[in-house]
Write a structure and sequence with these properties.
Blueprint lengths: L1 H21 L3 H15 L4 H20 L3 H17 L3 H17 L7 H17 L3 H14 L3 H17 L3 H18 L2 H17 L5 H15 L2 H17 L3 H18 L2 H14 L3 H59 L3 H49 L6 H20 L9 H12 L5 E5 L11 H22 L3 E9 L2 E8 L10 H12 L3 E6 L6 E6 L1
Parallel strand pairs: 1-2
Antiparallel strand pairs: 2-3, 3-5, 4-5
Helix pairs in contact: 1-4, 1-6, 2-3, 3-4, 3-15, 4-5, 5-6, 6-7, 7-8, 8-9, 9-10, 10-11, 10-12, 11-12, 12-13, 12-14, 13-14, 14-15, 16-17, 18-19, 19-20
Length: 551
């Protein structure tokens, strides 16, 4: 109930902002409410997946409309879905993204409630990560902003739960007592019962003599309210208390009482918790039922996570196809205009258009190559390399052979290197410094790299497309050197003559007959794309490798 209450509070704040400040259409509001209800009370795993797809698409539309506040709300829903599906890191990323949008939003200093909601959600996430210090840090940020006494009490309850998990029992009890007193004064018996029950649970862990009385008091309050989830929780806590006190007959009574509620409500999670205690108390058919139930729950959870991953892939694939279709429509519109204009133009203008579009097409192809390299690099880094690293981290906790871990680590390093080789080239910096950084990345204790007259080149007169292509060519030569040449010294010489830039590469490696592998063929193709030339020179008997470049 705690998580749902927090989510309801956040939804109420943001929903009010979206309706009254932004003025969305009734259709949008109704759709959001429908999928929001699927998040709150999903009947099947598909409900959460459907809600994820809706709010992901809605977020993108909101960003296109520059409706940042609504996109922030969509991200909050997405984070809640990811949390429920067990994707805690994805949930954290969604919240951080939303907070970034919120920070850049004009007048964001006045939007206190959204920040409170995000801090509270991060506090709960880090508690699940068992990063208790960070969890309390975010809860304290909430307390620094919150004004509503009920919300403050809710956050204090979250902090008390963290103390309980840290086994700081005295601190936990002090917080729970303040919460209990507050809710009694407010007349909120339901939450007061939860507080006194938490006090009893912590006291039970401390073998405190008041534990039993407080647990019984919480049960009576919940029975008077006819609040079934609370009654079930009290039965479990009393069963656990008596089990730890070696009063098995009482523990068995309360565990069976909890199981009776679970059976009548057909709640699998309830049954799991009740049977778990019975498992420790006796060995009969109910133990076998518990084991079978655990297998069923784990299987359902795995199926749900697989469906989520598959649906996320299908959604991205669908989105990509939609974008390609829109791009194709735009291209068709441009072609129609071009054909109409060409039909009315004279021969000279037609010739001009032919030359213009040929050059433009060539530039676009080069640009697409750079964009594709960057996209692949980012995808390899963000998805494959990170997933491989996370898998390695998880596997280290199991008894896995060292050679298997070494092989996986080698795959991870090679994946990371591929990403690095195709990473973004930042031409906003001084190009001389960019090239020096490239040379420095290949320089080590065994290989020295010298660059002569590089500062004499006026790089500002060279087009960015040519500079990007040249960077990749030099990078490929260095990679080829690192893999094959066994060189200890590499020299680059730069000069400019009659508007042309000349670069000479040479190393003192083992040399050999030039065989144009994929790397060297890529080098030639890049040079041809910018109307440049490259000539390779190499020979056997340690004569090294040379290349002459002109752009």
């Amino acid at each position: 109930m705690k998580s749902r209450t927090s989510f309801l509070f956040f939804y109420t704040i943001f929903y009010s902002i979206a309706i009254h400040t932004i003025g969305y259409s009734q259709v949008s509001v109704d759709s959001s409410r429908y999928y929001y209800n699927l998040i709150l009370e999903p009947e099947t795993s598909k409900d959460l997946i459907d809600a994820f797809i809706f709010f992901e698409e809605h977020k993108k539309k909101s960003l296109v409309k520059k409706d940042t506040l609504r996109a922030i709300l969509d991200l909050r829903y997405i984070a809640e879905i990811q949390n429920k599906l067990g994707s805690l890191y994805d949930s954290e990323n969604s919240i951080v993204m939303a907070m970034t949008y919120l920070k850049n939003l004009k007048g964001s200093d006045t939007l206190i409630e959204p920040r409170i909601g995000f801090y509270n959600q991060l506090g709960m996430l880090y508690r699940q990560f068992e990063d208790y210090e960070k969890s309390i840090e975010y809860y304290n940020k909430v307390l620094n902003l919150a004004q509503d006494p009920n919300h403050i009490a809710s956050v204090n309850n979250n902090i008390a739960n963290v103390y309980k998990e840290q086994k700081n029992y005295e601190l936990a009890i002090n917080e729970y007592k303040k919460i209990y007193k507050f809710y009694l004064e407010q007349g909120n018996t339901l939450k007061a019962a939860r507080a006194i029950d938490n006090i009893g649970v912590v006291q039970s862990k401390m073998n405190h003599y008041k534990a039993e009385a407080n647990l019984e008091r919480a049960l009576k309050m919940r029975i008077d309210l006819d609040y079934v989830p609370g009654i079930f929780t009290s039965y479990l806590h009393l069963a656990e208390h008596y089990k730890n006190s070696n009063e098995n007959s009482k523990a068995l009574f309360y565990a069976k009482s909890a199981l009776s509620i679970a059976n009548s409500s057909n709640n699998l999670k309830y049954k799991e918790n009740a049977l778990s205690i019975l498992l420790d108390l006796k060995d009969d058919e109910e133990v076998q039922e518990y084991k079978a139930l655990i297998d069923s729950i784990n299987k359902s959870k795995q199926i749900q996570e697989n469906k989520y991953a598959a649906s996320k892939y299908e959604y991205n694939h669908h989105l990509k196809k939609a974008q390609e279709s829109e791009l194709q429509k735009e291209r068709q519109k441009k072609l129609k205009l071009i054909y109409l204009f060409s039909g009315l133009s004279i021969l000279l203008l037609s010739l001009f258009l032919f030359i213009y579009f040929r050059a433009r097409h060539k530039k676009e192809k080069i640009k697409q190559v750079h964009n594709t390299e960057t996209r692949i690099s980012k995808k390899i880094h963000d998805e494959i390399a990170n997933d491989m690293y996370n898998t390695l981290t998880k596997l280290e906790t199991y008894n896995i052979k060292e050679e298997v871990l070494d092989e996986l680590e080698d795959i991870y390093i090679r994946t990371r290197d591929i990403s690095k080789e195709n990473s973004v080239i930042d031409l906003k910096e001084n190009y001389t410094d960019v090239l020096k950084d490239l040379f420095l990345s290949f320089k080590n204790d065994h290989v020295n790299i010298i660059a002569r007259n590089i500062s004499d080149i006026n790089w500002d007169k060279i087009h960015n497309i040519k500079k990007k292509a040249l960077y990749r060519v030099l990078q490929e030569l260095l990679i080829n050197m690192k893999k094959h040449s066994q060189a200890s010294l590499v020299a680059f010489s730069f000069s400019q003559t009659r508007g042309k830039t000349h670069i000479t590469y040479s190393d003192n490696g083992i040399g050999g007959t030039v065989k144009k592998s994929t790397g060297l063929l890529n080098v030639e193709n890049r040079m041809q794309s910018i109307n440049g030339t490259i000539i390779f020179e190499s020979g056997p008997n340690n004569k090294g490798f040379k290349a002459k470049i002109i752009i």
